[in-house]
Amino acid sequence: MYVRRPTLHWHQQPPREDRRLDAEARAHAVIDVLSDLQAQDIALLDIRKSASFADFFVIGTAGNPRQLQAFVDRIDEALGKSGVHERHREGKAESGWVLMDYDDVIVHLFSPQLHAYYRLEELWAPGASVVHFT
To answer: Dihedral angle at the C-alpha atoms of 54, 56, 62, 67, nearest 10 degrees?
Structure first.
């Protein structure tokens, strides 16, 4: 049975339950891209219980700046095809760190050195569930 959802205007937010499902689907779409591009140390952090600014962090590591830029481009392309657009971006591939903000999903892409330095999984582990993908 098909149930039509009501049309929302740009200033309206869907009910929290719907946003959570959408956020989870977005996070898994990012994980799929990172997995396809052979990212290292892919992790999904569910931070809904400990943060109000996002539901999930997706973390991935790139071997070099060119690979990191490919991650950025493909994630943006894949989510854009689904109608999801980036709200904000910090960092550059050359710096070894890029943050991509997709509302309830924040993507952190690192070089191996910066991933080891920031250790976001450890920082958020007390209040978040962490799932690693190989």
So the answer is: -70
